[in-house]
Amino acid sequence: MRQHNRLVAFVAAVVIVLANVAVLAQQTLDRTKVPPSGPTPVLHVPTWTKTQLANGATLILSERHTLPLVSFSITFVGGANQFEPADRRGVAAMTASMLTEGTKTRTGDQLSDALQLLGTTVNAGVGAEEGSVSFVSTTKNFDATLAILSDMMLNSVFPADALERLRGRTLVNLTQAKDQPVIVGAQVFAKVLYGDAHPYGQRTTETSVKAITRDDIVNFQKSYYQPGRAIITVVGDVSPGKVKGSIEKALTAWTKGGEKPSFDYPKLPELQPAKIYLIDKPGAAQSVVNIGLPGPPRNTPDYFALQVLNTILGGQFQSRLNANIREQKGYSYGVNSGFNYGKGPGAFRAGGSIFTDKTDAALIEFMKELKGIVGEKPITDEEIKTAKESLIQGLPQRFASVTAISGAITTLAFQGLPDDYYQTYADKVSAVTKDDLLRVAKRYIDLGHLAIVIVGDRAKVETALKATEIAPVTMLDIEGNPAAP
Amino acid sequence: MRSAKLSFLFGVALTCALAQVAVGQIKIPYETYKLPNGLTVILSVDKTTPTVAVNIWYHVGSKNEMPGRTGFAHLFEHVMFTGSGHVPYGLHDKLTEGVGGGNNGSTTNDRTNYYETIPSNYLESALWLESDRMGYLLDTLNLDKLKAQRDVVKNERRQSYDNQPYGRVSEIFSAAMYPKSHPYSWPVIGSMTDLSAASEEDVKAFFRLYYAPNNATLAVVGDFDPKQAKEWIQKYFNDLPKGQNVERPNVPAAKLTASKRLVFEDRVQVPRLYIQWPTVGTHDDHGLGMMSLILTGSRTARLTKALVYDSQLASQVFAFQNSAEDVGVFQIVVIPRPEHSLTEVEAAVDQVLQKFISEGPTSDELQRAKSGLELNFLRGLESNLGKANQLLSGAVFFGNPGQYSVDYQQILATTTAEVKQLATRYLLGPRIVLSVVPKGKKDQASKAAESETVTMLLPKSRGGRS
Fold this sequence. Notes:
The complex is a heterodimer of chains A (485) and B (466). Helices cover 45% and strands 17% of the residues of chain A. Chain A has 18 helices and twelve strands. In chain A, the strands form two sheets. Chain A has a six-stranded mixed beta sheet, with helices on both faces. A six-stranded mixed beta sheet of chain A has the order 9-10-8-11-7-12, sandwiched between helices. In chain A, α11 crosses α17 (434-444). The relative contact order of chain A is 0.14. By secondary structure, chain B is α+β, with helices and mostly antiparallel strands. Chain B is 38% helix and 17% strand. A six-stranded mixed beta sheet of chain B has the order 1-2-6-3-5-4, sandwiched between helices. In chain B, strands 9-10-8-11-7-12 form a six-stranded mixed beta sheet, sandwiched between helices. In chain B, α9 crosses α12, α9 (286-296) crosses α16 (416-427) and α11 crosses α16. Chain B is globular. The interface between A and B is large, with 91 and 98 residues.
């Protein structure tokens, strides 16, 4: 300790001397002046071609020769929400995992060893509204990797013992998820907003996983992986003439079939008056807070206004929510908000992990900011300017890698957005007005019908939450079912 | 990390997977020089995307702290974003995320880094921001700012350790692996009690010593004109005074004299088994990285095949070499299937390891383990920030920004005999076996009767909740 203090004094003396030197040298430089930015770089949006294969799949090709890398993906329009029966939730993800378990000519071990030698992996997954099978490879290993992907997608044999192993692992994962307050919070939030009858409110459960049979898997593979709903995206160091031939050759056996699903979702449950749903997590150091309600789909005409709005409210570090609740109040390591756009009514959500003792105080601040953004604290010109700059100037980053470019282009095809989307992006963001922001805030952040889902230590937070009088408190269990009051 | 939303872990505890390689003719072009005040500069131009990464590594981490004053290095990472002499609070974010870029920082045992990713036309302001907090942070630092960031750090601790299942494992190992007062024995995030006790002067002294240009390395990577960048670097950094010479702590190698067997009760339903050995740090870790891939890097890897596929005792198994500048550890983690005990799992791990130690890897196994290097390296080249971290890691820990290329060649040259030798040297030595079990279920620990309960290792002053 004493030694440490002596060191402090010595260092302080040295710094005073040196600081004087610095003052002299500094005379020519006015550090208070913020250096001006240079001219805005010209936006180079990658170009691509879009054609159709004979089997009906869309093929998108974009050349990029800076590095010997290729990104290849097949995206399927529609996912678990469109293709899974409600009592077989999990069959889509499990089928995707089973694609690694062996084909007519290769065992699972052989597939794994062959891919490892090629330095890569084939990733297969199915999400809520889309699925994909993809890889990134070096240019020289592209054809060989594509051949393996094709074999996995078309010739998998789905061994019964592999299904049992995956089922066992999935059940362990589900058990572990129950201990994760962030996962529990997200699941219960979805259930409260959408209910059991809406795919957005459903999830994979122990019961549904146990019910899945090998026939379910085989049927899912047959009906799902169809070219009629596929977007093949190739980005990187390829020559368009050659690569189309490679793909047609590798996918010869993939014959016409399937179509894009409709995304007709059932009607939403009637909105409930605002309510706090508390899930007890005894001893939790933090309360996981999710506040929100169902929102608009991605194709809403209000998309650009909402993007600007959310950038101001909770999309960034200095957005209103984080600036207040983390930086000013110190209640959290970080809070945010966002619109979870999908083909259907994805949620608006604000939240974060809050120090248990400050759960009520933080909720008061969340509500203050939400009321603020819908009118009580008018959005300033400066906020609008910064939010727009941020969105517009962030565009080049979306084209920084072969996988980023692939995602940026595939999204357009998947969402049905125009090919000049990125060229016109800046204009659309710029066109958003203050009136637009207020209108969409009032429309989509419906304060009277917010669901407030909190996973935390009931003994420490319940009374304080009630005392805020923000909304009545209802107890739920970790499955989102009513708990003992 | 300052902010969780960008959870880049580049450069954190470099494993061999990050210390990658020049493939054939593809290299990372760079030039490097030093300013008179000791600041090392690395410039690397890549015009692919009109963006730039500015990244500064200060060669200070939690190991430079003193017992009783832990957590300073990481606290600084937070304080550095609260404004400085000529930069009002908030402007840093406005000139980075507010113009479509981003910023963050991270702290390890060995170093602290700060970065901005920005559109290339904002390079000058990013250099201005970094120079101001290097030179003038203390002008505006006061107790209120410190207290506010201490609260954020406490929340970071709650979020990343206390409210995470298995979240306390890393600090349990730090405390168990090293003797008390060893520079790697406390967690990077430090003790909340120490942070609360820190005076303004304590904190300022730490800054003056370690946040001087002679203890820093600046990398600029991306789309810029090097001549212009040099002028700006000269303009903003040249007049910052050189600090004292920083003495590198003399860190004794991690040595376990005897194996330990620990059990920790956590709010979890699924128990986990952790086995950890002391190994070596960044300077000699390539073969150990290969060993981790041969054990659990693929479906046919030794431990994965035996535990997850053949016997199905486990749901998942991971092995990795975690290398810091001076020390390293090799760790195996097993998530068991419900019907199987941790005792059973540990025996199965040992059976696989014994065979592996006695016969070493096959040349096929080693070849497969090396096969992913090239693609990983090429993909790393797509990120300005990732490249900056590779160059910086070499410069700071090896005095050579091009160290990635040396590492790559060394990894490719690894032989089966070397891996076998490493397995014998390290995996036969003393180790720590940690069972994390559900509350009240200490009997689920591997060899429960022989296991010491971990609360002994976590005195209240270290990591207690405030």
